[in-house]
Design goal:
single chain; mainly beta; Pnp Oxidase, Chain A; Elongation Factor Tu (Ef-tu), domain 3; 9-stranded mixed beta sheet; 6-stranded antiparallel beta barrel; 15 strands
Length: 273
């Protein structure tokens, strides 16, 4: 049977798009997916460790307008996509064995080719567990621990891109009624155009004359939006207790320890009285 074994794998993005690939010279069909041979995509040998070791392998291929495009890769639309890999009998696809399941890790590209790291299901088990005792909040704004509702009036605003530089520094119109730096450490989310759905963390937020606003991200968007596209700004949090109490009125859910003594206190010699 080894003469009829091929490798087939399916990649499912978070937006629900599913693509199938195979190293066989003809298309294969199973589980409602067509596995195409013309994608230029291949996988290296799977490395699977015992215990809680991280399963790992790599996928390499050529950028294809009909499958994986350069724009989609740069936009991060393939980040953390679900991956399943089978050994399959191409003469009878019902005779197959699932040998890997995980998700895409880091994706790099060079010219017209790309390489993606595959990470196994056991990877999260190697993450550090437990709370960190720190004066600042350990929650993320709006998550299950913070419980703040970011849809509340005043904590987000929509505007239009008037100009931008390298998809990183934006001039926006239509956003008013917010103090300067209100959106720093928050998010800029593109909600229309070719970059729809992409987001970045706000580094600087400057209120200009009238309704114009200058916003700079920590890193540029993978796909440049067009002038006239709409964006949403979401308020940011610096995780201080004072900010939680005064800006968000959410101190009941503050997850930090603001009254912990500083490190210097531990090193200060105690004087007997």
């Amino acid at each position: 049977m080894s003469e009829t074994i091929a490798r087939a794998w399916a990649v499912t993005r978070h937006d629900g798009m599913v693509l199938g690939f195979t190293d066989h010279d003809r298309s294969l069909q199973f589980e409602g997916i067509e596995f195409r041979p013309d994608s230029g995509l291949s996988a290296r040998a799977v490395v699977q460790g015992s215990g809680l070791s991280v399963d790992n392998t790599e996928a390499a291929g050529a950028l294809s307008d009909s499958a994986i495009t350069e724009i989609d890769l740069m936009a991060g639309r393939w980040d953390a996509a679900d991956v399943r890999l089978w050994d399959v009998d191409w003469s009878n696809p019902e005779n197959r064995r699932l040998i890997f399941r995980g998700h895409l890790g880091e994706v790099t590209r060079s010219g017209a080719a790309f390489r993606a790291e595959l990470r196994g299901l056991s990877e999260p088990l190697n993450r550090t567990q437990g709370r960190v005792y720190h004066p600042r909040c350990s929650a993320s704004l709006g998550d299950g621990q913070c419980k703040f509702d970011l849809t509340r009036p005043g904590y987000s605003a929509e505007g239009v891109i008037v100009a931008h530089e390298d998809g990183q520094r934006f001039t926006l119109s239509g956003i008013e009624g917010h103090d300067a730096a209100w959106f720093e450490r928050g998010q800029l989310v593109v909600i229309s155009g070719v970059a729809n759905g992409l987001s970045g963390i706000v580094k600087r937020d400057l209120a200009s004359a009238g309704t114009r606003r200058e916003v700079e991200l920590w890193s540029g968007l993978g796909v440049y939006p067009a002038i006239g596209d709409r964006v949403r700004l979401v308020a940011g949090c610096d995780k201080r207790g004072e900010t939680c109490r005064m800006k968000f009125l959410n101190y009941l859910n503050f997850r930090g320890f603001p009254h912990l003594p500083p490190e210097d206190w531990l090193l200060t010699p105690k004087v007997n009285r």
